Predict the structure.
Amino acid sequence: MRVLVTGHQGYLGTVMVPVLRAAGHDVVGLDSGLFADCLLGPAPVDPPTLEVDVRDVTTEHLTGFDAVIHLAALSNDPLGALAPQITYDINHHASVRLARLAKDAGVRRFLYASTCSVYGSGGADLVTERAPLRPLTPYAESKVRVEDDVAAMADSGFSPCFLRNATAFGFSPRLRADIVLNNLVGLAVLTGEVRVLSDGTPWRPLVHARDIAAAFAQALVAPTDRIHCAAFNVGTELNNLTVAEIAATVADAVPGAAVVITGEYGADARSYRVDFSAIRAALDGYEARWSVADGAAELCRRYTRWGLTESDFTGRFTRLARLETLQAAGALDDTLRTQPIGVRNG
Ligand SMILES: NC(=O)c1ccc[n+]([C@@H]2O[C@H](COP(=O)([O-])OP(=O)(O)OC[C@H]3O[C@@H](n4cnc5c(N)ncnc54)[C@H](O)[C@@H]3O)[C@@H](O)[C@H]2O)c1
């Protein structure tokens, strides 16, 4: 298949593109490059790339593709809180426009990177895809709105599918330090402490970036009736853990590290345990295989091997800090559009 992947230079896209190419797909990427050079270790080989802001996509960009995998977004709660209106512009409006243009261009399948945080506060019971959506942040709200608006476009020629990913973990050449496991392993490697700022009680479903990539790769080629206008939680019940359990796993993986639960941020309202049976039933043989313990050990090895530093960890590998640095340098304007080189710093 000929596949356009938006946000392919992000944390997940950088892991997903090689999986799609290995499956024989002809992949083109589209990205505004906010994190293109945020690399730890050897640089990946990017596919042919459209350096385009997703807000500026035209039908021409989308012509000739069988499928679109839409990852590009301001991709977490702190970023959403930074500028809620820009989050809605990029994550909601531009995503719905992208889907409409893709449909107009004859694209038949549209796989959307949604999130389990659409469930907000789910309590102790396992939440299925039929649970009420209670988004607690602009980021999560933007994902719910896209699901609603793009589902309304589904017809016999256009099949959207909404993959509600658990919180990702694991190594990517374009690393992120602001997701819980990657963050705790980094702190442990750099400081010897696994420092938890909440009280440790919230439930967090986790999934390895490679298991997310595998879910998208399988949804791409699944029979249409299995994925048409469906939402799937992506992950495994085995990785529904509390933050305190995640911290203990990290301490086991990083030699000499000890857990410190400061509790200074109190309880976190975002807490949910997730049921992942629907994706296993719909996508034959799909299983999220990576345990949190294996992911923590992998991260510890890679961080150590590629020489993670504290300034990179809190700087370019932390999305909010990275965007603030680009804005301060004049490389991004107030709406987070990249500026031509000649305009920067001027
Ligand atoms: N990482 C997770 O834990 C997680 C969990 C659930 C869902 N998701 C979703 O998966 C997708 C990918 O996540 P990620 O962790 O790789 O995020 P990321 O922040 O690492 O990457 C996002 C990519 O989108 C690009 N982008 C952002 N705004 C853009 C714009 N206006 N135009 C063009 N490109 C733009 C960035 O340059 C970047 O390469 C996102 O939609 C995210 O919401 C991620």
Q: What stands out?
A: Residues 7, 9-13, 31-35, 53-55, 71-75, 90, 113, 115, 165, 167-168, 176, 179, 319 surround nicotinamide-adenine-dinucleotide (CB under 6 Å). Residues 60 and 105 are 8 Å apart (CA to CA). The radius of gyration is 19 Å.
